[in-house]
Amino acid sequence: MKTQVLICEDSGLCYGAKRAVDNALECQKIYGNVTIFKQLLHNNYTIQNLISKGIKQKDSLALLNSDDFVILRAHGEPPQTYQYLQERGIKFLDCTCPNVLKINKLVKEKDEQGYKIIIVGKHGLNDGQMHPEVYATSKWCKEPYIIEDQQEIKNINFRENKFFLVIQTTFSNEKADKIIQTLEKLFLSNGKIFEYADTTCKAKNRIIDSSIKLAQKVDCMIVVGGKNSSNTIYLYQSLKKYVDTYQIEDEEDLYQLFCANKLKKGKKIGLTGGASTTKEELVGIKQEILKMI
Ligand code: SF4
Question: Distance between CA 93 and CA 260 in Å, rounded?
C-alpha cells in the first residue's frame, strides 16, 4: 500500500504570528534595517527565513541603535520596553498579538481597581524559561501570582480580598480549567471576590481540534514546531492521547525518527504544526517523508 501523508487542514501560522511575520517583511521592504527584538515567534524555520531577507534579530535593548527599525514580537512586551524605545526615539512597530494586548490591558485595569492578579501560565521555575508572554503580562500589574500547576495554589495569600485571573493564551485548557475550579471553590468558601477571563487563544484551539480529527484517521501523527513553543508542546500532548505522536523541530529530527524506524512504509501519517509553523514548512516536511519511505 502507498504511504500517505495528510496535512491538517487548519494548520499554518495563526493570525497573530502571520501578522508579525508579514509586518516584518513589509517594513524591511519599505525601510530596510529591520530588527526583530528577541525571537519573533517560537519557530526557527520562520526566523531563518526572515534573516535570509536581511532582517536582524537583537536580544537586548542595549544592542538597539537609533537607526534600527524595531519589530516587537507577537508575545508582547512589558511597559519598560516601550518606554526605553520612546525615550531614545527608536522607531518601532508593535506586533504584539491583539489577544495578548487585550490581556495586558485587562490586568493593568484590574490591578488599578485593587484586584490581585493571578496569571495561569508557564513561570519557568523548573527550567528557568518563563514564557515571554507571561513575563510581559506580569509587568503590566504589581507582583501577580503566577500559577502553572494546581499544587501552587497554596502559595496564594488569602488575606487579600479581590482576585482577577487571566490565562496565558497558549496554556493547556484542561489544566487552566482545573486551577480555576479549585480557586473558585476556595475563594467562595473564604468570602473573597474572584473574577476571571478565559484568555486562552481560540486560534490555537482550532488547530488542536482539527489535528485531533486527523489523528483519529491516521496511523501516527507528526507535530512540527519549536521545542520551546508552548502551543506546540500542548498540541503534541493533546494528540498523543489518540495515536502514536512525535514532535519534531526540523528535518534533522525527522531523519532521527526515520532512523528509529518510526516512519513505516504504507502507513497513513498525519502532519500538523504549532501556531507558528507555516504550511510551507509542513509541505517541505511532507516531501521529505515521501522521499524517505
Ligand atoms: S497563538 Fe493565538 S494568541 Fe498566540 S499569537 Fe497566535 S493568535 Fe495570537
Answer: 45
Third-level CATH fold of 15-96 = Rossmann fold (3.40.50)
* Structure confidence at residue 42 (pLDDT): 86
What pLDDT is recorded for position 228?
Answer: 86
Which of 31-45, 110-124, 175-189, 204-218 comes out lowest in average pLDDT?
31-45
Ligand 1 pocket test target in 95, 170, 172 with most atoms within 8 Å of CB: 170
Topology, domain 99-196? Cobalt-precorrin-4 Transmethylase; domain 1 (3.40.1010)
Q: Return all residues near 72 (Cβ < 8 A) that are at least 6 apart.
A: 37, 81, 92, 93, 94, 95, 96
Residue nearest to atom 2 of ligand 1 (CA): 201
Residue identifier of the C-alpha nearest atom 5 of ligand 1: 16
Over 90: is that where the pLDDT of 130 sits?
Answer: yes
CATH class of 4-12+202-292: alpha beta
* Per-domain boundaries in the chain: 4-12+202-292, 15-96, 99-196
- Of ligand 1's listed atoms, the one at least distance from the Cα of 169 is 3
Residue 66 in contact with residue 89, Cβ under 8 Å?
A: yes
Q: Give CA–CA dist 168/103, Å, rounded.
A: 9
Q: Using one digit for the tens of pLDDT, what is the confidence trace for 51-90?
A: 999 999 999 999 999 999 999 999 999 999 999 999 999 9
Lining residues, ligand 1, CB within 6 Å: 14-17, 74, 97, 99-100, 169-170, 201, 203-204, 231, 275
Q: Is the predicted pLDDT of residue 41 greater than 90, yes or no?
A: no
Specify the ligand 1 atom closest to the Cα of 17. 5
| Identical topology for domains 15-96 and 99-196 | no
Residue 275 phi/psi, 5° resolution? -65, -15
pLDDT, position 165: 98
CA distance 86 to 68: 13
